[in-house]
Amino acid sequence: MSHSTPVDRPASESPDAAPTQVAGQPSAHPSRTTELASLKIRLRAALRQFPDFPSPGILFEDILPIFIDPTLHEALIRSLELHVLQSGNGQKPDVIVGLEARGFLIGPSLALRLGASFVPVRKQGKLPGPCETQAYDKEYGQDFFQMQCGSIKPGQKVVIVDDIIATGGSAAAAGELVKKMGGSLLGYVFILELEFLKGRDKLQAPVFTLLAGQEGKTT
Length: 219
Ligand SMILES: O=P(O)(O)OC[C@H]1O[C@H](OP(=O)(O)OP(=O)(O)O)[C@H](O)[C@@H]1O
Ligand SMILES: Nc1ncnc2[nH]cnc12
Prior knowledge:
Catalyzes a salvage reaction resulting in the formation of AMP, that is energically less costly than de novo synthesis. Homodimer. Residues 1-33 are annotated as: Disordered. It is a single chain. The radius of gyration is 17 Å and the shape is globular. The chain has a single domain (32-209), classed as Rossmann fold (3-Layer(aba) Sandwich), CATH 3.40.50. It has five helices and nine strands. The longest helix is centred in the N-terminal third of the chain and has 17 residues, at 30-46. The two termini are 30 Å apart. Helices cover 27% and strands 29% of the residues. The strands form two sheets. The protein has a seven-stranded mixed β-sheet with strand order 5-6-4-3-7-8-9, with helices on both faces. It has helices spanning 30-46, 65-68, 70-86, 107-114, 169-181, and strands spanning 48-51, 59-62, 95-99, 117-123, 131-138, 141-148, 157-165, 184-194, 207-213. Bound molecules: 1-O-pyrophosphono-5-O-phosphono-alpha-D-ribofuranose and adenine.
């Protein structure tokens, strides 16, 4: 049993809190916008928080309950699909890149829906053959990411997906790997953004997050 217990989410993070919207995105298809709004309410209610995990001072956002309920799992993948379909000025991605490990829970399903390839970014030492490597810092530590050489072809359109953006270090490193491969980064898609950490400021492509978390916190 874990030393942490989940805590209730504050009222500012209630299911009907304002949805995250990226300035400059094209206006959405009305029926897709309505569908997305109701899916977000269901997803928000499923998230849990664990204080002091994996280290003291970190409020850990647990997305795994979404995958216990197949209808929520479906709602999640559909939400992300709707977003990709209504953004990018009509450009569909050729490749979905997912980040180890929790990005692997959503990346392959999303890629299948969009008829795109799936390419993993893994922690150093897990992938065989020649790899590109990128060092990064994240909310609770430092690491190295790798991608297999040749997994993205020059000019392919790429969307990077992960569960959470905190400091943005992981996502920025993945963006660097895509650049090293010659890919064209259309944008980033996350389930949850810890806005107080301002991770999106590190990213060089449009950012979409379904939900915002820990709004009251400051750095
Ligand atoms: O924005 P950042 O500060 O970089 O943090 C976000 C990253 O941290 C978590 O992954 P973690 O490295 O804990 O790996 P895991 O998915 O393998 O648990 C999360 O899944 C993101 O990938
Ligand atoms: N607070 C947090 N909860 C879950 N995953 C994270 N990755 C980085 N920060 C995190």
